[in-house]
Amino acid sequence: MSNRTLVDAYIKELEAEYTSTRKCLERFPVALFSYKPHPTSMEMGYLALLVAEIPLWITFMVEEGEVDFATYKRFEFSTSKELLDHYEEVFKGAQKSLAGITDDELDAPFYLKRQGQVLFTQPKREGVGSTINHWVHHRGQLTVYMRLNEIAVPSIYGPSADDRTF
């Protein structure tokens, strides 16, 4: 496929975030599903699911061109293994979706909807990049929740206080 400079960069960026994200999800204890550091914070289980599932948004963006909150089905899990298996599945799906398009196809619009009503639209090229950033942001939140619960934070972009490997 020609004209894939941006798509290839997105794939490389997605893959660069894979391992550290998996390390965080591997350490998530389902016993802390309802933990919230503050009453207005999201529950740790929802946050872990969000981190595991955000690559799925890329698949929807590329293949469907839209996400409708009214029909979007959040994955339900009760074990860490189910969460990790879901992460693996959606990550591979995002890779496959991106591998099947060109940079020019990223010019098509992406629509975020609620019950068919458009809430937000942007070119897919902007949406994929902001989705990866959104993913990294929520993974960072998850590491704060981990720290507050004495769960060892893995090395991400360099050593952490708990993991000196890099």
From TrEMBL:
<dbReference type="Pfam" id="PF05163">
    <property type="entry name" value="DinB"/>
</dbReference>
<dbReference type="InterPro" id="IPR007837">
    <property type="entry name" value="DinB"/>
</dbReference>
<keyword id="KW-0479">Metal-binding</keyword>
<comment type="similarity">
    <text>Belongs to the DinB family.</text>
</comment>
<dbReference type="GO" id="GO:0046872">
    <property type="term" value="F:metal ion binding"/>
</dbReference>
<feature type="binding site">
    <location>
        <position position="134"/>
    </location>
    <ligand>
        <name>a divalent metal cation</name>
    </ligand>
</feature>
<protein>
    <submittedName>
        <fullName>DinB family protein</fullName>
    </submittedName>
</protein>
<dbReference type="InterPro" id="IPR034660">
    <property type="entry name" value="DinB/YfiT-like"/>
</dbReference>
<feature type="binding site">
    <location>
        <position position="138"/>
    </location>
    <ligand>
        <name>a divalent metal cation</name>
    </ligand>
</feature>
